[in-house]
């Protein structure tokens, strides 16, 4: 029976029978997947930094989400349509997830550790093997800059590579600032004098094959592995030229 509004007549529909076969379409999985994909999409940032996604990838994922939402909203969608929608969106989500930008900072980390260790072990001063005053602070500044790059969660590969280059250069300058032995200054008093000549004389005849070479090798002024007349002559020449 159909009851009309007060502008028309009521109509008796005889024998009308409508049988509706309702097959429940399970959309729970699709619904959950859409929510998950949307939240991953919304949290994602496009860019070239670590953990970011290539430009255009969010729009591609959103397109897949929208298609899935259309299926979810369609009352005529069959279970097969829903399953297909789940499969499509799963594939789109996997493609999106695997496109995340990864930046390799291994080289930078290794270099920072090495630089810091060289910095910490270095002593500033004027003696042989020490570093020029101020050189440690310079190196530390370079290390700090490198650490700042590393601390940036969205660092790009180019930034990481540039930091490696900069710290490598700082380390080269630092290493070059180590105080070298003045040729002929056997006793390391920053002066070439008869005292050095005497030490060469004492070590005269010693060679790198000797067990106690370490004790005398400073007297090997020309570095040829033996203390001989050439070393004496080199020290003498330096003294005479002063
Ligand atoms: Ca000396
Ligand atoms: Ca020599």
TrEMBL record:
Top-level taxon: Bacteria
PROSITE patterns with a match to the protein in the record: DOCKERIN (PS51766), EF_HAND_1 (PS00018), EF_HAND_2 (PS50222)
A Pfam family of this chain: Dockerin_1
InterPro entries in the cross-refs: Dockerin_1_rpt (IPR002105), Dockerin_dom (IPR016134), Dockerin_dom_sf (IPR036439), EF_Hand_1_Ca_BS (IPR018247), EF_hand_dom (IPR002048)
Domain EF-hand: 216-242
Coiled coil stretches, renumbered: none
Domain Dockerin, chain residue ranges per copy: 179-242
Name of the protein: Dockerin type I repeat-containing protein
